[in-house]
Amino acid sequence: MKEEWDVIVIGGGHAGIEAALAAGREGCSVVLISAKLGRIGEMSCNPSIGGIAKGTIVREVDSLDGSMAKSADETRLHFRMLNRRKGPAVWGPRVQSDAAAYAATQQKYIINKGIFLIEDEVTGLNGSTDSINGVRCRKNGIVRGKAIVIAAGTFLKGRLFRGNETWRGGRIGDISADSLEEDLVRRMFHVERFKTGTPARIVRESVNTGDLEEQPSEKSAFRFSFADSVLSKITVKCFTTHTSRKTMDIAKDYLHLSPLMAGRIEGTGPRYCPSYEDKVVKFPERMHHKIYVEPMGYRSRIFYLNGLSSSLPREAQEKMIKSLPGFHDAEISDYGYAVEYSYLHFSEIDETLKLRRTKNVFAAGQICGTSGYEEAAALGLIAGANAGRIVKELDPGRISRMNSYIGVMIDDIVSKGLDEPYRMFSSRAENRLHIRQDNADRRLYEEGSRLGILSKHRKEILSSNIEEAEGIKRILDSESVDGVILSKWCRRPGVSVSEVKKVSGLLDGKNEIIISSVILDEKYRGYIERNRRRYESGRSLEKVNLKEIGSYMEIDEICWEARETLEKERPDTLAKAEKIPGIRPTDIQGLMIFLGRKRSTWNDSNGGDS
Amino acid sequence: MCGISPEIICAVATPEGTSALSVIRVSGLGSFALLEDVMRLEKNRLQGMRRKVGRIYHGERAVDEVVVYSWPEGRSFTGEEMIEIICHGIPGSINMIMKLLIEKGARKAYPGEFARRAFANGRLNAVQVIELAALWNDNENKYTGETEESCIRLLKEIEKVRESIEGNIEFSEEHDEDKEILPAIERLVSEAVKFRKKAIMIEKNTRIMIMGPANSGKSTLFNLLCGRESALVSNEPGTTRDGSTCIVEINGKRMMLCDTAGTDGKGLDRKASEAVIKRLDGSERVIWMSEGGKVPPYSKVRKRAGEIIEIEAKSDLSERLENDRMIRISSVTGEGIKELKDMISRVPGSMSLSAAAEKIEKCIKDACGSIRSEEFDISAELMMEAEMETRRILGKGENIQLSVERALNNLCVGK
């Protein structure tokens, strides 16, 4: 073991893996500390990767040379492109993965890249908060490092609940990082509690799949990765079933034994991923909820029941499950449960994912308040890259929200804060028509290069894709149809990608996928431009500093209400002021006049230049 | 610089109505190129301090022959690239030119926007701006009463449709409510069309109602302002039966003038006068006339009218009192008529409302078309623009809670 490492990564989940690999790509020596090395890369819940917006994130992580996409391709069992009939900007590629194989593949990448692994529990950071020099471990004592990435997932003071059972853990069968959480709290980091849940796992053979509806896999050569990943050739069947009135009645009968109802869980859960009992309470008229039945792996004997997350007692869960069509004789291998955990308040994290009060500690994954493997991987990659950059005495990098979902996520978390676990939705991105899964490679090349995390091989691939795309754009700009330039013709409503290809003479032989992507760029160009202009005019407000304003109460140009609100909120810039609820455009204009007037009187007295 | 929007703005700088010439101003980076485009000039023809006599084209047709002056960046009123178009003062061709400019990417300027840019670029000093700002605040688009209500209703409908579209995009797996979206958005299209029609009516026909007790000279005033002899005029009280309307131009502003039956509250004309009062919806201006100013406006009228101008009619027949705050007019001597005209032509609001309403209608129509061709992503984008524009009319900021988060409150989703 080394004297001192460059980067220490705490946690071997989806965030930890990408962080370790990214720090490695920055040229750092990396050690990853996890309580159970065998569970590195484990999928805690749903054995799937991708979805709407999440699928795009996976491709963005790949464009920044992360490993998630490649592993997802290699271990895929089932594929669907969601939203196929809603428009290409909102397509969501999604795969079911062989959970065990996925974890093994990720572990393989870590080992191959020379990441050192230590099996231990991290009990705290070492050193004073503004000059952390390592971490303290239960078995190995002090491990020194120049920068740290905390990717502890749901393990910070993790508490598991089921009926009236409560026990410690970040996940069933895992420890809870209580000491680490205590250390953070002692160092006055503001933490809050969130909750999430998971459904039961069922023995595959005990389910009568004949009674279920089959959900076939799409035959598609789609790959998450832009590089040459190996695509798995195996497919498995997935199924759906549904709950009924009977299921609902059972839930109602046991509701009083729910730990949430009993008030034992304080953490807020996500509205988009409620437990079954939450759904029953909130939408009592709804009888039928669709449940997805997903195999955990090709040779796995387990089914995952997606949609039936629950923390009701075992007895209740068993009855509910047996009420589902096909599950009459079901055998439960693991019961569902809820987990409550601590996460860092957004005020502690800056746009590079560094903990503000430290010089070299970064946060990634669920401890930032996000949920989802894809979100965690993206944050891990950025945190790891920036930790590496700090070690190399380079400035940490920022990702723009106009260019990627990763940028949107970081900006949302850090500036707006969260009141429920953050999951990416496509509508979070104003620039959704530009931020698509088909052009992630071209979008992120520049920022990836600046961050310094692109390997030579990846750079070659991305720059060759960009060149090819530019060539195709040149063709579209030069050919015309009925007197209209092809690139403008693409913008007509209802014109499809295949029509454009038919009409053009010169596109034969070029990469089909890139052609489609460039055509889509043209199709959406008008909207993307308008968005960009709106964003730019918003940005100019960011440059207007409000710190010089003493008291808002004397400003005649704005109305009373605005004065009170501004006095209370004291925004730093005009852009932040604009975002305050209740502040209207006329208030902003009034402020601008006030500031302008102030500035010109100063200029007069300074004989100034404005 | 403070909050400059990089968009190209354009506006008619001369008053509404017919005249020999009118001026349209265009400001913003790219104005030169835009004009070179619509005038079919060679590139860079307008670079620098230039003037050019030429034609503005729409397709193959020439819309008007115009003189354009170009002002380069740093040497114009606003400090940005500016063009001043001098065109013929025919409302139809002025509208056509504005439409063309907007099609090519410019947008109608908000009241005072040219001055704001001039200030932001240091071309106007603070004192000049304060004076303009005072004017600008008066012209702030305060839409009250029925207009505001219909706008709020429209906004609610837009929000609802957006929620279903976004909910459908994000949770398509779990929701089969595809079928509901198309009918909902089609309904929204007809709401938007109604709103646009109303907006145009409001701007083009600001209603001015002439009201007051019988025989106070309303019809005489009406005829005077309309310039014709249409209403029956007699000395017998209550001779105007239904009241007449005509569209007039006063000081360049177009408005609808309504003469009414004597609002005496008595006799046969009582029904007619009550009907008139019922029609008031808070957006009209009422000229309340009574001989010598002796009869004040009825409380019902006060409550329902948007604004009341009190007039002391037939001033030739009485002496001026002290503390007289009313306008004294005499249709016989012409006293006070000019003052009255000035007052009623000071109508708040500019052409922005109908422009915004047209934009909203277009966005929603296009969004509907996109849903039909299964382009939900484009439809969502268009609906967002429609919502932003509607909020802008209402003076609300752009702080919208994410549509999908609103949807989450109503949708049972999640796995």
Walk me through what this model shows.
The complex is a heterodimer of chains A (610) and B (415). Chain A is an alpha+beta fold and 610 residues long. Chain B is an alpha/beta fold. Helix content of chain B is 42%, strand content 18%. In chain B, the strands form two sheets. In chain B, strands 3-4-5-2-1-6 form a six-stranded mixed β-sheet, with helices on one face. In chain B, strands 8-9-7-10-11-12 form a six-stranded mixed β-sheet. In chain B, a hairpin with a 2-residue loop joins β8 (245-250) and β9 (253-259). The longest helix of chain B has 27 residues, at 178-204. Chains A and B meet through α16, α18 and α19 of A and α3, α4, α5, α11 and α12 of B.
The number of E-state strands of chain B comes to 12
Regions of chain A with pLDDT < 50 over 5+ consecutive residues?
Answer: 600-610
Q: Which radius of gyration of chain B do the C-alpha atoms yield?
A: 26 Å
Shape of chain B: flat
Order of helices and strands of chain B: EEHEEEHEHHHHEHEEHEHEEHHHH
Biggest interface, chains and residues, is:
A-B, 63 and 53 residues
Strand content of chain B: 15-25%
Chain-averaged pLDDT of chain A: 90
Q: Hey, roughly how much beta strand do the residues of chain A contain?
A: 15-25%
Number of strands of chain A: 22
Spatial extent as radius of gyration of chain A = 26 Å
Q: What share of the residues of chain A lie within helices?
A: 25-40%
Helix content of chain B: 40-55%
So what's the overall shape of chain A?
A: globular
Q: What's the main sheet of chain A like?
A: 7 strands, mixed
Tell me the span between the first and last alpha carbons of chain B. Answer: 48 Å
Strand neighbour order, sheet with most strands of chain B: 3-4-5-2-1-6
